[in-house]
Amino acid sequence: MKVTTKKLVLGLLFSALMASVSVQLQAAGNPPPPPVPPSDPCTITVVGQTPPVGCACGDGPIAGHYEQCDDSNTVDGDGCSSTCKIEYCGDAVINNPAELCDDGNAIDGDGCETTCQNSFGFTCSNNICLPTCGDGNVVGTEICDDGGAVGGCADDCLSSAPLACSGGSPNGTVEAGEECDGTVCCDSNCRFASSGTSCDDGDSATSSDQCGDSNGVCAGQVDPNQNQGSGSGSSSGSGTGSDPDKVPVPLDSNGGSGGGCSLVSGAQVSATAMNALMLFLVPTVLLRLKKKN
After folding, report:
1. What is the tens place of the pLDDT at every residue in 9-59?
2. DSSP string over the chain
3. pLDDT tens digits, one per residue of 277-290
4. Cα(first)–Cα(last) distance of the chain, in Å?
5. pLDDT tops 60 at residue 263
6. From CA 195, how far away is CA 214, in angstroms rounded?
């Protein structure tokens, strides 16, 4: 009896000692092992194995542990992606035509708004948004933007172009940093003149000459009055005329050419006078001969 009691006491002391050692080990930074996770019914352990019903994306039922949605298809752009993820503005993916961009953040003014539309002054393509150089708005990385007008902004809107000719004034030679030099439609700063600036292309057949769309070309419209002469005449059939090209035009008694009367040539005048003279002389000579006889 005494031996059995002694063994029971020794067993209790040993159990208490082991429990104390376990507590001390945990306090020393040795955490207990993690619990064994429950088995995943959708886990595929064999390559090529067909997922169980309710586990495959596009089969209808939502497998909550990895599917956010399941609309029974694998088509993007209908609200539920082909990977069974909910589509929304801000997921960094252009999901439908209504979204012009999607940069995946909640910052406005960076090219793509939080509404998935272009920011003011930006143009987006393939989800890449860049400042629209030439629209007159300085945004993003632009240093300047003159709206396409002649000015001191480079064509890429990333630097300011020189405002004056390389030599300080036009010298007839286009040099580095100049658009033109000493030509028609070129201003004193060696820049193409603004579209609509009056100019003279040197062609008398055109009028209303203007510089083109900031390209240095001067052109005008054909003058509808070109080559239409004017002048005056008298009843004697003589007169003078002129036109813009200073080409002499014979005039008739109506004050113009081709009006039914025209000037006769010198040969025509001589022949007419000779005929009249012969008509006068022949009868006179015949009369005198008759009297002598």
Report:
1. 666 676 667 666 565 655 555 555 555 555 666 765 566 666 677 778 888
2. -HHHHHHHHHHHHHHHHHHHHHHHHHHTT-PPPPPPPPPPTT---STTPPPPTTTSTTSSS--TTT-S---SS--TTSSB-TTS-B--TTSSS--STT-S---SS--SSSSB-TTSSBPTTEEEETTEEEE-TTSS---TT-S---TTSSSSB-TTSSSBPPSS-TTSS--SS--TT-S-SSSTTB-TTSSBPPTT-B---S-TTEEEEEE-SSSS-EEEEEPTTTT--EEEE-TTS-EEEE-TT-------TTSSSSSS--PPPHHHHHHHHHHHHHHHHHHHHHHHHHHH-
3. 666 666 666 777 77
4. 215
5. no
6. 5
Smallest CA-to-CA distance from 117 within 145, 85, 109, 57 is with: 109
Q: What pTM value is reported for the model?
A: 0.40
How many residues does the structure list for the chain?
293
How far is C-alpha 224 from the geometric centre of its chain's CA atoms? 36
pLDDT tens-digit map of 170-216: 888 888 777 888 888 888 878 888 788 888 888 877 778 888 766 77
